[in-house]
User: Which sequence fits this backbone?
């Protein structure tokens, strides 16, 4: 066992006892010679902790005193976990034996690899990719994230088209492998994000430092998605728009961030109009609130310290233009020469 790095699967739970009942048994089938499975609880009020103690006494439980969100919850839980590798795993993920070994083998092959992700497919439609991660995350020049296998709302069927492992821009927090030393070096998640896009921020910061984020095609998991905040949720809309602006401001130099954010305010205003025409007034207000927050906190501390102008996985173009105007619906439709 001492020849194998220690791996800790860490599931953050908040009022998700139904997901624990359905998905935790599959996690217990995970195979690795030096493995610990931990559930961190964000002060659930649905009997989650009692359920775990009664049904899974072998699983270590770490309890937070309140709900610190995805970011603060994980920061506090992982501060109490000793391992060489952390696997941040959503509570609504189904796995199968053998899913860990290919990713750890890939990460052990290069000391510069800080983060990696398996192929993420949809639990409810298992021959399709899942929205939050798919076959690896990328980002365009305007800060819009997208995936190989999912552009905007278009989700591809997995036909074996993305079976090549390689470097990407970001790994989904639904199933993120990260070396502890790089988690510590980066300081974990930025708690201002609370939830959504915090994993993109973490990956971007690490890439700016010269580390790599990888996609491992030989491992796959199945993600239900929407376990905490459903897709049609104004608070989720607020977090996505607010955090995307924070993401850009944090990880680009001032002059470039100013240009991109100016363009994003125009594009976001178009989103507000679209929400209003669709009768989604609460979502329109959520985008406006996101802008208000950003302006109010524009001089907050904790932004760019290291910048790399050419990062693998960054798309030198507009994914919105390509999708809606040029009708490029899949990753392979995109101009591959526009990727760094």
Assistant:
């Amino acid at each position: 066992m001492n020849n194998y790095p220690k791996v800790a699967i860490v599931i953050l739970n908040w009022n998700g006892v139904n997901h624990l009942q359905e998905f935790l048994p599959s996690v217990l089938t995970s195979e690795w010679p030096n493995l610990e499975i931990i559930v961190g609880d964000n002060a659930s009020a649905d009997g989650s902790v009692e359920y775990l103690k009664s049904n899974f006494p072998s699983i270590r439980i770490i309890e937070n005193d309140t709900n610190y969100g995805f970011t603060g919850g994980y920061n506090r839980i992982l501060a109490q976990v000793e391992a060489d590798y952390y696997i941040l795993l959503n509570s609504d993920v189904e796995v199968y034996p053998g899913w860990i070994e290919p990713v750890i083998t890939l990460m052990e092959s290069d000391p510069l690899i800080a983060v990696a992700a398996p192929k993420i497919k949809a639990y409810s439609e298992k021959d399709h990719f899942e929205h939050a991660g798919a076959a690896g995350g990328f980002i365009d020049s305007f800060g819009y994230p997208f995936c190989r296998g999912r552009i905007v709302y278009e989700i591809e069927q997995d036909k074996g088209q993305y079976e090549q492992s390689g470097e990407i821009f970001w790994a989904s927090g639904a199933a993120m492998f990260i070396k502890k030393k790089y988690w510590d070096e980066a300081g974990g998640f930025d708690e201002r994000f609370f939830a959504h896009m915090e994993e993109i921020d973490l990956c971007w910061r690490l890439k700016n430092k010269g580390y790599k984020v990888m996609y491992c095609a030989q491992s796959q998991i199945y993600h239900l998605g929407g376990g905490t905040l459903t897709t049609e949720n104004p608070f989720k809309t607020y977090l996505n728009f607010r955090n995307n602006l924070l993401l850009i401001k944090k990880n680009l130099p001032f002059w470039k961030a100013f240009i991109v954010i100016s363009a994003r305010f125009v594009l976001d205003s178009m989103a507000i109009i679209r929400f209003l025409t669709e009768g989604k007034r609460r979502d329109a207000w959520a985008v406006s609130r996101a802008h208000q927050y950003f302006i109010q906190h524009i001089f907050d501390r904790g932004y760019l310290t290291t910048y790399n102008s050419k990062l693998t996985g960054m798309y030198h173009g507009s994914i919105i233009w390509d999708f809606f105007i040029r009708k490029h619906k899949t990753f392979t439709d995109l101009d591959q020469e526009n990727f760094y």
In short: The CA atoms of residues 238 and 286 lie 5 Å apart.
